[in-house]
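Why this split exists: single-chain examples teach little about how molecules sit against one another. For that reason, every record in the complexes split bundles all components of an assembly together and asks for one structure covering all of them. Below is a record exactly as it appears in the raw files.
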Amino acid sequence: MSELHKRIRRSSLHEKIMSPEETIPLFKNGMDLGWSGFTPVGYPKVVPAILADYVEKNALQGKMRFNLYIGASIGVEIEDRWASLKMTDKRWPYQTGKVIQKGVNNGEVRMGDKHLSLYAQDLGYGFYTKENGGKLDLAIIEVTGITEDGGLILAGSVGVTTEIVQIAKKIILEVNTSIPSFEGLHDIVMLDLPPHRTPYLISKVEDRIGTTYVPCDPDKIVAIVESRFPDNGRALSAPDECSEQIAGHILEFLQHEVKSGRLPKNLLPIQSGVGNIANAVVGGLVTGPFNNLKVWTEVIQDTMLDLFDSGKLEFASSTSLSLSADGFRRLYENWDFYTSRVVLRPMQISNNPEPIRRLGVISMNTPVEFDIYGHANSTLVMGSRMINGIGGSGDFSRNAYLSIMHSPSTRPTKTDPHGITCVVPKVTHVDHTEHDLDILVTEQGLADMRGLCPRDRAQVVIDRCAHPHYRPLLQDYFDRSQRECFAKGMGHQPHMLFAAYAMQKNLLEEGTMRMAGWS
Amino acid sequence: MSELHKRIRRSSLHEKIMSPEETIPLFKNGMDLGWSGFTPVGYPKVVPAILADYVEKNALQGKMRFNLYIGASIGVEIEDRWASLKMTDKRWPYQTGKVIQKGVNNGEVRMGDKHLSLYAQDLGYGFYTKENGGKLDLAIIEVTGITEDGGLILAGSVGVTTEIVQIAKKIILEVNTSIPSFEGLHDIVMLDLPPHRTPYLISKVEDRIGTTYVPCDPDKIVAIVESRFPDNGRALSAPDECSEQIAGHILEFLQHEVKSGRLPKNLLPIQSGVGNIANAVVGGLVTGPFNNLKVWTEVIQDTMLDLFDSGKLEFASSTSLSLSADGFRRLYENWDFYTSRVVLRPMQISNNPEPIRRLGVISMNTPVEFDIYGHANSTLVMGSRMINGIGGSGDFSRNAYLSIMHSPSTRPTKTDPHGITCVVPKVTHVDHTEHDLDILVTEQGLADMRGLCPRDRAQVVIDRCAHPHYRPLLQDYFDRSQRECFAKGMGHQPHMLFAAYAMQKNLLEEGTMRMAGWS
């Protein structure tokens, strides 16, 4: 019996096995598609590539367009290829890839982003496909096996696969035989519709409340295809000096909170975003003073394996194993050790306010920019150009015990190594409001905004977080704004509304946000 | 035995009874105070007034300043009097009153606003009074009785009284003998600290999970004062034509959702904010086609009594009975009927994402303005001038099954009956992001933004919600922004960033937002 047949323990499904080419007639222009996958792990790698081949070969660019509902990012080899073949119409809720980003920003791709937990439930509620009766026409799901009852054993991510399976009319399965069966790693709960939703009885990070497989109506399964492509995963670059400094400020702050009795000795469950700074923070924990740590997050990256290896991390809950190729190798080599300490959940649960708030998660994420009053922009450069999407940053920031945003204080432009200040008077787009965030950090220092009114916040953010090159300019903005607004009796959150984006204007015209002054 | 003594069923506390004047020595300049009260019901009415008399008589203005942590608004006769006597330094998280608002906006009062559910828990976590060991120096709590065990039987609101009682060093009780004992109306759950928080097992609006009293260490009680002042409550004005039109659009939409199978016949639990439009919506439900309704909200206003009387409302959960004087009279006259159908919860629970999301609440709130891409401003006029505070609008909007924001499409200025458009290119302050809101409504119509990318959202909002006087101006902004941004490859959410507030500038300079054009 082939490995593929072994993985499909419900033998009546063997007759649905076919070649990827045979699935092509299932696709029609304008369909709503749901795919497994998250940051880019567990997405279908065979059928989308074959369909792209078909479109290219038959010059169907612009004539085979689809609406894609996925957990988050998928591999660029698929994402960008589909975008370049004009196959992507709507795309929710997150993407990475140069071609897709170009399409999103030139009007070719209609992308939307919503907080991941909300997106998951709204997809399940049928809100995104109202015109389609709340259904998806077709799903493509990567699995590592099928149980005797037809339950789907997923791969390295869950994302919105649960909701997709619930609302899909037809399902294509890609059984990945190049990686082990991930059976036992998932804790699957399907979405109930209100008024019939019940509490998620998770009081500890490691609590399990569901099944190890996604229940699936076998009649929906129209094709099963073998996949032999492992996830390429996501490699991390080594932390730089700036990231190390930011991590240092955060670790010092956490120690101070423990001393003050506002955090237990082993902290509270940690959520850490993606990127250099997140890695540096986790790296700091590897050598730091805290033990018996737990992680409640949406992505587990390679550095989390280091934290497990250090013996300091007890358990991690996530919706995705966003490891590098090397990270996956480590995982497979030490499978029992790691997998007994990890659970993968639907993102409707990993990102749900309910467990995040109950568990008291410490959230840490990197925005594009934040402002002196404590608003952050995570998605749109200059208020318009989409980068990737909001992801789970809002789910975590709004509901965390401590909501931390970290960023370098400046970024370089072509002509000025500090041409962009990430601490601005007023962010050009708001993803996280002043009502959401507690702590802002740059390599310059840490601003604890808890309990401060907007004006007190502004002063501490300028003093602690702004780069010295920009501090006088920001202070001048704040001082002038106070004078102007107090005189008009409108100084709760002082702004010079019509000059608030002058630094951004200077950037476009002069290549740097360092400008002479405000008048 | 006096009524006061009867209400205090723990007789050992009778010795703490004193005159309000005798409490004055308990107050010291700079103290952190916690008061009961919410929208303005259940706040202390005696001691704060006596302390104000004392400050006035002894010319202590500016020498007796306090930080006030309350549930939400209190009566203006206290709020504004304290502000005029310079007694209010910090003030969280919401206020109403002309004098306090002046102070907030001229720099005298340091106000902060956070989502009510978050504010409640962060107060309980000790974040607002870090410098004070996370404690409040003194609490003043209105009660309608004390149990044999010293449990506090609250009055017409809960708010953050639970958290205040937990972190207060000393407590003054005002026993209100002018109103009935509200025993049995409250469902009290105290705040546990993570990692020891547990699920709130509320699966139906009417589920009770706590006690009918607030557990309180009797040693903390330093004074008991009698109060004979009933709540003045909050009167409502009759709905105007604009509000009726908005309510009409919403009711039609809800019927459409029922027909489409996306809502049950009796809808889902309703949250309705304060003001004319909210009244009109509830008024529409009184005569509308829906039965067996439930309400999960933060304030119960007079129109909810009408809805009970109509037989269409089964149960309501709230943190406050924000009734008018006449409404309270109706409540007392038909006490058993109403109170068997109402429960009052701590706002940490009434506004908590956990039950709001689980129950699938339909939220409806009025912002100051919203923009074509679906952001809303609920707090700051011109991005700077504070009105009242964000209240619970973010708690509900972010977590609702359907998140609805409603507003008149225009407001008058001195010189133009349509001088202000509430539908703008870019809101001057963001309290609710594009990732939070589903439906925008004005008297012009209803825009269903679910599943739409920003550009598709903008078109439907302009077409459905904008006033005809402003539609061409907004369309022109949108068209030009697309051309400019697509050309630069930054058109996911097209803006002319440096012209986005031109209409607001025109308003300040010309008294109307109707302007000639964008160039």
